[in-house]
Write a structure and sequence with these properties.
CATH class: Alpha Beta
Order of helices and strands: HEEHEHEEHHH
Structural class: alpha/beta
Strand content: 5-15%
Shape: globular
CATH architecture: Alpha-Beta Complex
Number of helices: 6
CATH superfamily: UDP-galactose 4-epimerase, domain 1
Distance between the termini: 31 Å
Radius of gyration: 18 Å
CATH topology: UDP-galactose 4-epimerase, domain 1
Largest sheet: 3 strands, mixed
Number of strands: 5
């Protein structure tokens, strides 16, 4: 997910988040996905690389193992950013599954890895704070550049 920079990179008044499908057979009507914090994703890759040997590389499902609705994600983004994000609800795409989330059992058992940063709201707030202080990506943050 790199949605967080969108409200900053585009004019906030023109930014519109597109949600495809509100007629899924889920509680919220939107599809369910497994949102993972980038820090957890990096940690899982590091653990997998540490265990990898020439000719023997593991294949793992990396995620929280918990699905969240796209509607829940959108509301969390609005709260985390404080931006009144406009949402266009569009027809669903053909072939999209109602629910897709990981089963991290294998990576937990083989690499002793589990997602640590599972609070969606907190992850989005941290990402938003970082994005606001790094408008041009990596390099000096605005806080350092202006001091």
């Amino acid at each position: 997910m790199n949605f967080v920079d969108k409200p900053l990179s585009e004019s906030q008044s023109s930014f519109v988040m597109q949600v495809r499908g509100i007629d899924y057979k889920t509680a919220a009507g939107t599809c369910i996905r497994d949102y993972i914090d980038v820090t957890d994703l990096v940690d899982a890759h590091v653990k997998a690389l540490e265990k990898a040997r020439p000719g023997k590389v593991g294949i793992y499902n990396v995620g929280t193992g918990r699905g969240r609705s796209v509607k829940e994600f959108v509301e969390a983004c609005k709260t985390a950013t404080g931006v009144p994000i406009k949402v266009d609800f569009l027809p669903r795409r053909p072939g999209d599954y109602a629910e897709v989330y990981s089963d991290p059992t294998k990576i937990r058992n083989e690499l002793n890895w589990t997602a640590k940063y599972t609070d969606l709201q907190e992850s989005l707030q941290i990402a938003w704070r970082w994005q606001k202080s790094h408008l041009n990506g990596y390099g000096l943050s605005l806080a350092v550049a202006t001091s």
